[in-house]
Amino acid sequence: MLYRRCGHNGLMIKIPKLPWPSHKPTPNRHPSISPVSDCKESTFVQHDNMQTDADLPTLIKQSDHLNALRYIRIHQLREPELVVRHGKALLGTDLSRGLSDEVARLAVLEQVCLGALDAHDPGTAEVCLDKLKAAGIAKESTRFRRLLARCLEGAEDYAGAEIIYDDLLKESPANLQALKRKYCMLKAQVGKEVESMEALNVYLKQVYADSGAWYEMARLRKELGDFKGAAFALEEVILGVPSDAKMHVELAECYATIGGMENLLSARKHMAQALELDATDRRAQFGLVSVANAYLEEAASAGKKSVDEYEIQVAKELVRYGSEQVLSSYEGSDMFQAVKTLMTEYTADL
Questions:
Q1: What confidence score (pLDDT) does residue 148 get?
Q2: Is residue 262 in a domain?
Q3: What global pTM score does this model have?
């Protein structure tokens, strides 16, 4: 268990350990990262078949409210204001208008409820909840209780929401949406950093291959100064998104912050990988120069006997290469001379 001094009062807080399974399942390959804090809620089971191939701007222009809402659902877009506007246009400002397809109406009410909460419109969310209840949706149903908990979250009644999520998890410990919401709810509260990490750990034990959740863990760890934990979490992220240059840069920065010969070698490797994936990334260009130079400084202080001469030569070449890339990026700009002076300081003694 790690400890960290926090705040002006000098209190020590515990930092829970990351899950370390005896074996890791092969992670799914995700094309992008979607943080767990922005998790999408599933809607009532409905016929979510688009009756048109039009894109969202076209549907909005045609005032096709139902298909616009379906498009947002299917593509998992976060457009709360659009959802509320089209929902009210479809069902009326009081959301009492009926549709020929009752299942579609229930789906719209749930979607508008979640959109209203995201848009900080608790009044509309409460109306949606009342309409769902009046439509015969059982108060004991999982979906209704989840929506009620979200409304309680919006009203900052976290204790009431936690009771509902705990009940849902007692009924089904693998209820991923309840696990996600417990984490999101704790993260929204000041001073609940440790509890939010524990909740995220519980979720990750259920869904080890969720790259978005691992990225959330990395951010939390960095906020608490636990860069070793952040590096471990970012390694898991890269398993899911190996071609994301920015993730390699963030991981390299963690290793560089930890320091030491081995960690600087790892930082150098990931900075170089980031540049291979995106040669125009200036953060990676500067980062490669910085970490390779830091390795040379560490090697000089360690003594010749404990350092591989080949690695020193590689580091020098990487400093030169990174400097060339930086100068190429700034060529022709007003910053070029200042950047050139800085790069000369790095390469002068090589």
A1: 94
A2: yes
A3: 0.77
